[in-house]
Design a protein that fits this description.
The complex is a heterotrimer.
Chain A: E1 4-8, H1 12-23, E2 27-32, E3 47-48, H2 57-80, E4 94-98, H3 101-116, E5 122-124, H4 126-132, E6 142-146, E7 150-151, H5 154-167, E8 171-174, E9 178-183, E10 189-194, E11 199-200, E12 203-206, H6 212-218, E13 226-235, E14 245-248, H7 250-256, E15 263-270, E16 276-282, H8 293-306, E17 314-325, E18 332-335, E19 342-346, H9 352-368, H10 387-390
Helix pairs in contact in A: 1-5, 1-9, 2-9
Chain B: E1 4-5, E2 20-25, E3 28-33, H1 38-44, E4 49-52, E5 59-61, E6 73-76, E7 79-83, E8 94-97, H2 103-106
Parallel strand pairs in B: 2-8
Antiparallel strand pairs in B: 2-3, 4-5, 6-7, 6-8
Chain C: E1 14-18, H1 22-33, E2 37-42, H2 71-82, E3 87-91, E4 93-100, E5 131-137, E6 146-150, E7 154-157, E8 161-163, E9 176-177, H3 179-188, E10 191-192, E11 196-201, H4 206-214, E12 219-225, H5 229-236, H6 240-245, H7 247-263, E13 267-269, E14 271-277, E15 284-289, E16 302-305, E17 308-312, E18 315-317, H8 320-325, E19 348-350, H9 359-374, H10 385-405, E20 420-422, E21 427-428, H11 429-438, H12 444-451, H13 464-472, E22 501-502, H14 503-506
Parallel strand pairs in C: 1-2, 1-7, 2-3, 7-19, 9-17, 11-12, 11-17, 12-13
Antiparallel strand pairs in C: 4-5, 5-6, 8-18, 14-15, 15-16, 20-21
Helix pairs in contact in C: 1-2, 1-9, 3-4, 4-7, 5-10, 9-10
Amino acid sequence: MITDVVIVGAGIVGAACARALAMAGVRVTVLERGAAASGTSAKGEGNLLVSDKGPGAELDLAVYAASLWPNLVAELADELGPAFPPLEYERKGGLVVATTDAGAAPLLAFAATQREAGVDARPVSVADALALEPWLNPAITAAVHYPDDAQVQPVIATEALLASARGNGAVVRTGVTVTGATREATGRITGVTTSEGDVRADAVLIAAGPWSGEVAGAMGVHLPVKPRRGMVLVTTRMPHRVFHKVYDGDYFGATQSSDAALQTSSVVESTAAGTVLLGSSREQVGFDERLRVDVIREVAGKALRLFPFLAEASVMRTYGGFRPFMPDHLPVIGEDHRAPGLWHASGHEGAGIGLSLATADLIVAAMLGTTPPLDPAPFGLDRASLAPHLVGETAEPEGEAA
Amino acid sequence: MAARMMPSRHDPIRRRDETAIGISVDGEPIAGVEGQSIAGVVLARGRLAWRTTSAEGRPRGLFCGIGVCFDCIVTVNGERDVRACQRRASDGDVVETQHDELPEAAR
Amino acid sequence: MSPGAASASSAGRTVLVVGAGPAGLAAAKAARERGASVILLDSADATGGQYWRHLPAARPSANERALHHGWSTYTALHAELDRDPGCEIVLGAQVWAIEQFGAAPGATPDAAPGADGERTDAAAAAAPAPVAVHVLVGLPDGTARRGRTFRPDALVLATGAHDRTLPFPGWDLPGVFTAGAAQAFAKGERVALGERVVIAGAGPFLLPVAASVAATGAKVLGVYEASRAAALVRGWLPKPWQLVGAAKKGGELAGYVGSHLRHRIPYVTGRAVVAAHGTDRVEAVTIAEVDADWRSIPGTERRVVADAVCVSHGFTPRLELPIAAGCELTPERFVRIDEGQATSVPGVYAAGEITGIGGVDAALAEGEIAGHVAAGGSTRDADLAAAIGARRTFTGFAARIEAAHGIRPGWTSWLEDDTIVCRCEEVPYGRLRETREATCASGLRSMKLTTRAGLGICQGRVCGRTVEELIGAGGAPGALTVDGSPSTSATTDRRPIASPLRIGELAGRAPGDPGGPVDPHTITHRPSEKGHP
């Protein structure tokens, strides 16, 4: 019987799990070595996407998650009151376009497979695409509209989930570094050791995003999650001319590839502040935060292919984050079969904001023995596709010591 | 009562040989001299504010004067976000003031 | 010493100097005297920096020196560099990014597949600075500036500082300016920002501002210094011999006092402008007496009719380029330097206000040392003795300014809930406070992203440190860190894009700049970047 849970990490996944567990009556302590919502959750666009996933377990999770967000936004608004900033949830829809003749057919074929899996993916003519996005490059060759793609302001969402978790009894401690696990004689994990003393728990849930491997390592188990860096450019405020999330079709190729070399594909969207975000890149360079001009040049160049008018817009900021990348491109959600008492909720790569709510529901069901909203097996650490990445690896901390 | 340029005939540093130029601000012609910044031309005519803020619609003009605060941005010959305190006025410049509305308001 | 007398070690060495104010000019001259090739960049279209900001060539005058201190020092430095073929002065040159190469700080060997441990960071000190400096040259905020990228042997950063103005009710009204704006427009435009001008804030800089404003024919109603006389005495007088040693600074201040007497400008301590009034522009200000912590004392408020208010409470060093280059900062948030002005990054030097707010004489001395050492010289070289002596004399100046005029925490008593803190995004103090309470004083990044404070077009240059102080008060453990890391990047001063640029310029598609130029010191890509870390 699980009555006390320690969650390592106060990003959106940890926050969503903390709220869901606290509301289910569990005593929750969230431990965060830095500040809340300061890692990967603060470095993305806040995507809640169904458009970028092919049929399979992750798409099922995304479709389920998409169904949860509208209610959550309303609940949090009621619960936290008008003094809390709004989550900027907007179901603005996505428009995925092909920019080459060769790219048109694969895009339409991909959308057809998604439709079979229940996604609202509507092929639109170039003229209709231009009606949706009047400033789009008219030279595009194909377009698919995804009305269910949405976005949320991820930092506000994380803070709101944490505030709600606190309101339901959870304790959130920042500036506390988890250094290891405490165990009983059987080896079962009974809590964590931290920079501020031990904390006892029936279950320890690692939700530290790309740093989860490091935390798991400190507890003596290997978790093959690696950081995959992404860079986003932010323009100055400008007249509102981009109305959906607009991607070029290369996005799919990038998401599904493990290649460490630089990949970029264009994602352009407006924010509630009137700025435009240009994404994004994917590189595996460890936790190196330093600016790479060749990366942002490429991001800028690809954005211009979608929206030529942006050439005279000004970039005022760039930021980078580290997506938690799993070798088989699926998050790990559930108990660690190698270390009873240890649980995982990480490896969501670029989809963690959207998937956080669905992840939390799976964790609650598994910890409390209730019926899960969908089959959790594909996300288990013991799944076949992860086996090659778990065997033969010694448990060693990744990255610098926490 | 207002900002103004020190008249060259009274200036103890004895300015001389200034060349007259003209720019327009939102269609209104304004005279200046070569070498003034756009902010300098506008301020010298006693006008303190030109931008309008996005959220509250408040007037803004020069604040830091050295290119740090971006409060004074204008559109010059179609180019947006030009700091009026940093860009020298050129004869014939077409300056438009900026009021960038937030997307919610635009909808 | 002439360029020809340089030792062999500096022959062919290229020193890139960013910023052509006093420190940068002195650095360029010293590097040339050591025989290095020098490229001197400034974003303005003239050298001189803010200190020697002056009328452009299109507006000649017979006696501009009357507006400046040390004008002959400036004209001599400029003339020498301008006629020197070994020094390329690039004006209208906006550095928008500095890239670091070499091993990632804190990177682990297994974090980067394909790295093979091939690292060159331990290479000899003679190796080029591990940075690339990306520059756009052309009209300020233009759309078709020419891109240049430099890989110098040594880089001297002399980017200076800008005014820091604390918020108070009405500070966002037109007619409220920084003191620096008043100075810049007096010296560089001959524009008076008003007829009845109040100058307020803290620091010795208010005095030359008052003198400059008075010299545009405006009436300066008074200079209101927030620090009380006791603090000024503590700051300035414990080591009076330092004032004697800093004879030029003393002389400069004496000159301003003389100017004030001539213009009959009152100089009042322990007073602050705590509000500005007006609907669409300033019509009056409230001046109040403040205690030693700068808390306004109820009942002392006095309303003064004014049409311009020039307010500065100190300076913020321009740190985005040193941070981008990877330079360590001190706990006081200046660039950490050694006695040769070297930063923590090999081949990167810093001089002037980014190492401490020390005034023009310190900047000149630091610049000379930085340029000399960057060009391959040593601090033990005899021709550097005078500069090292001068730097020693003026080093105490920064500490004395801070002791006497440093910002005191009571200023927050001036704020109302609707006082704008972030001017760009119009974030009022009340929203910051509410959000801090609702999120239990979360981290800086989270506060910024939640409230939008500091996320506007100035990128927190104006409000960044203010926001840090406002949310840091009573903050949770780690409240001011990012990612739990105590690194230099954990501040609002970190801006990897150091100045806005057009997307077309970034993509290399600006009209007239199809591929980017190649010149001797310019590269656009490094072959070794492939598969980097």
